[in-house]
Design goal:
316 residues; alpha/beta; Rossmann fold; Cobalt-precorrin-4 Transmethylase, domain 1; 3 domains; five-stranded parallel sheet; four-stranded parallel sheet; 12 strands; metal ion binding; isoprene biosynthesis
Length: 316
């Protein structure tokens, strides 16, 4: 049976970013250095395949520090943690390894600096997301006000409108965040912002690639986890950029083929915590059903690399 022709637009950059690469390597090095098990507070990154692979190597994932034995190392996830978390680990005299993405740490440092300067902080982010919880937890209660939408800005009750600063979660929609920032600056003209935007390079680059290919695609598939903020944003960006259909999938097994009936142009990308093997699995699944022509959509080149913590470079 002759396969129908299909053009597969393949976004670049896609998949793992430097922060995710570093976080995974940190867990692997910790297991090499101290042996299994090594405990990890929260999923190291938001991807089930990555977590399962590390679990098979000897990582044990827990939600809170007290769930791990005090005599084993504990790794903090790439999303960052509140100050109370390492304080609890220190009180138990645990070996701590911080896998927080350096770009998230940058936001933590900004928050602390604004607080030291007497400014109340506004954080643009998603309530309950580990990164947002970690950043808000850098300062005392009440010092960080969370906004998720432009409408939230209208409802803000601040201590002093002339003594404010804002930071953002690193994995937000670039366009949506710009609208919220504009609303903050309109209502609070004296508000201080970051010298460089907090949304990370990887989030921005992956959204730009999706924007570039969306007008040429009848559907876009985003490989990523349901709890991955940057992956979910890619789906939203695809729809807003004019693609009629966009689906978030964890693996090729989740593709809704009925929704793709009659489609002759599909875009494919992956969130920053999704392994390339999962992308290849989707390509194979599409090739099994269609006569595929792959067209790369390259909008940026990435060569960022982050060092692992010194504790992992020192002898055991």
């Amino acid at each position: 049976m002759t396969k129908a022709p299909l053009t597969l637009h393949l976004a670049a950059p896609r998949g793992f970013c430097a922060g995710v690469d570093r976080a995974i390597r940190i867990v692997e090095l910790a297991i090499e250095k101290w042996g299994a098990p090594v405990y990890v507070r929260h999923e190291i990154v938001h991807n089930r395949t990555v977590v399962d692979a590390l679990r098979a190597k000897g990582a044990v994932f827990v939600e809170e520090v007290h769930e791990a034995p005090a005599d084993r190392p504990i790794v903090f996830s790439a999303h960052g943690v509140a100050k109370s978390v390492p304080a609890e680990a220190a009180a138990r005299d645990m070996i701590q390894v911080d896998a927080t993405c350096p770009l998230v740490t940058k936001v933590h440092i900004e928050a602390a600096r604004h607080h030291e300067n007497g400014l109340q902080l506004v954080m643009i982010g998603h309530a309950g997301h580990p990164e947002t919880v970690g950043t808000m937890g850098q300062l005392p209660p009440g010092e960080v006000l969370l906004v998720e939408t432009v409408e939230d800005v209208d409802r803000l009750e601040v201590r002093d409108p002339d003594r404010l600063a804002f930071v953002t979660q690193t994995t937000l929609s670039v366009d949506d965040t710009a609208d919220i920032v504009a609303a903050l600056q309109a209502r609070f003209p004296a508000i201080h912002g970051p010298a460089r935007e907090d949304i990370c390079y990887a989030t921005t680059n992956r959204q730009m690639a999706v924007k570039a290919m969306a007008p040429s695609c009848e559907a876009i598939l985003v490989v990523g986890a349901p709890n991955s903020s940057n992956s979910r944003r890619l789906v939203e960006v695809a729809r807003k950029a004019g693609c009629p259909y966009a689906q978030l999938i964890q693996t090729a097994a989740e593709i809704d083929w009925r929704a793709l009936e009659g489609v002759r142009s599909i875009g494919l990308t992956a969130g920053a915590s999704a392994p390339e093997a999962l992308v290849n699995g989707v390509i194979d699944a599409v090739r099994a059903r269609y006569d595929v022509t792959v067209r790369p959509v390259v909008t940026a080149e990435e060569n960022v690399e982050f060092k692992v913590p010194r504790i992992l470079r020192e002898p055991a």
